[in-house]
Write a structure and sequence with these properties.
By secondary structure, the protein is α+β, with helices and mostly antiparallel strands. It has two domains: 2-216, no CATH class; 231-388, Reverse transcriptase/Diguanylate cyclase domain (Alpha-Beta Plaits). Helix content is 68%, strand content 12%. The chain contains twelve helices and seven strands. It has helices at residues 2-49, 55-80, 91-115, 121-141, 146-165, 172-220, 231-248, 262-269, 271-286, 313-327, 356-372, 385-388, and strands spanning 251-260, 294-299, 302-310, 330-333, 336-339, 341-349, 378-380. The protein has a five-stranded mixed sheet with strand order 2-3-1-6-7, with helices on both faces. The protein has a two-stranded antiparallel sheet with strand order 4-5. Helix 11 (356-372) links the parallel strand 6 and strand 7 (378-380). Helix 1 packs parallel to helix 3, helix 1 crosses helix 6 (172-220) and helix 5 (146-165) runs antiparallel to helix 6. The radius of gyration is 36 Å and the shape is elongated. The chain starts with a helix and ends with a helix.
């Protein structure tokens, strides 16, 4: 139960991290056009208000908008030009993006409260429609991050709502405009929420599809029971090792390992115990191998082992004997003490074969010879085995 909860928690954390990364990518992708539109609307606004608002105030406001927009672009290019590995920690970029979004919203909110109080009704509505357009754009471009939506919507539109409700000569029209903005903003929040939910669901679907593909790919090259490489993956690694050894003039060790007495365990204790024994044996053998070695289960109680770049035949036989000794130890499975052993056949490249088939056949014959000698021993292939081991 604890392990299951831990796995679920780790998956949730990974999903949350992935969503943040995806959100930042989407936010960054929409930032250049958003900044361009914001500055363009800022120029239109200062031009439209030039006759009724002091030029200095408009110039200072526009300058602040351009500076903040430029800083937001700096953050965007900083993120875009980083290596994929350095983008793993998205928190600093996300916080910077939100701060830039909030600052931009504050500047636009300033126009809605202070500039609107200096102009006539027509220009007040002009400002309101401009802010409404910005909110509509933000509902789409910021939908990937709910916090960014709030950071932009609230400072942008709330001052304009306050403006209409706080006019000294409030009329049904101005109060109606205030309520219209409230309803409009609520709808934009809802629209952003729906789009954000769609983004999340699409990302989750793509993530699930990727995980399924990885699982299918993994199952195609791994044993279902032990999760060891299967015959196909082993053959691929052996082919690669042969190419490297031919180029570097090094040795390769190949072992065939068959468990002695495994059928008796299955017959006496059932297949469930047998399966657990195979898993335990796989883990025990793996601990005696190098990271570059490959242990593969090829079916039933048979395993093959690849040892690339071994120093000599003597070293390979020492490793094989070490594996045989560890396989002979006691296993406790489901409160049962089990004793089995292993017969191992060893073949060396290039002495016993220069291709995959020849090496595997040589190791297989050596393993059968070990069985014929009484089991629980290690045998090195030699040419005489072809006549002494039955097919």
């Amino acid at each position: 139960m604890f392990l299951s909860k831990l796995v679920d928690r780790n998956r949730a954390q990974a999903l949350n991290k992935g969503i943040k990364q995806e959100s930042l990518k989407l936010l960054a992708a929409s930032l250049p056009i958003s900044v361009f539109i914001s500055v363009a609307l800022g120029l239109l606004l200062t031009w439209g208000l030039a006759e009724q608002v002091a030029q200095l105030e408009l110039s200072l406001w526009l300058s602040a908008l351009i500076i903040i927009s430029s800083l937001r672009l700096v953050v965007f290019y900083s993120f875009s030009h980083r290596s994929p590995a350095s983008r793993e920690d998205v928190a600093p970029y996300l916080y910077s993006f939100r701060i830039g979004t909030f600052s931009s919203g504050l500047l636009w909110g300033w126009t809605a409260f202070f500039f609107a109080s200096q102009v006539d009704a027509v220009l007040q509505i002009y400002i309101t429609f401009m802010l409404g357009g910005l909110i509509a754009g933000g509902a789409s471009s910021l939908a990937a991050d709910k916090t960014s939506v709030f950071c932009f919507f609230i400072p942008t539109i709330v001052p304009n709502i306050v403006h209409y409700f706080s006019l000294n000569e409030a009329t049904m029209t101005t109060v109606g405009l205030g309520w219209m903005l409230i309803l409009y903003t609520a709808f934009m929040f809802y629209s952003a929420r729906v789009q954000g939910k769609n983004i999340f669901e699409n990302y989750q679907l793509r993530l699930d599809a990727t995980v399924r593909e990885q699982k299918i790919s993994h199952l195609a090259f791994h044993d279902v029971l032990t999760d060891l490489p299967n015959r196909a993956l082993f053959n691929d690694r052996l082919s690669q090792a042969l190419r490297n050894s031919a180029r570097n003039q090094t040795f390769i060790g190949v072992m065939f390992l068959d468990l002695d007495g495994f059928k008796m365990v299955n017959d006496s204790h059932g297949h469930d115990v047998g399966d657990e024994l195979l898993i335990a044996m796989s883990k025990r053998i793996s601990t005696n191998l190098r990271r570059t070695d490959t242990l593969s289960r090829i079916g039933g109680d048979e395993f093959i082992i690849l040892l690339p770049d071994v120093a000599s035949t003597k070293v390979t036989l020492a490793i094989a004997e070490k594996i045989r000794a560890c396989a002979e130890g006691l296993f406790e499975i489901n409160n049962k003490e089990l004793h089995i052993s292993a017969s191992i056949g060893v073949a060396i490249y290039p002495e016993h074969g220069r291709d995959s088939n020849a090496l595997l056949k040589s190791a297989d014959m050596a393993m059968y010879y070990a069985k014929a000698l009484g089991k629980n021993n290690t045998q090195l292939y030699n040419a005489d085995l072809a006549n002494s081991v039955p097919e």
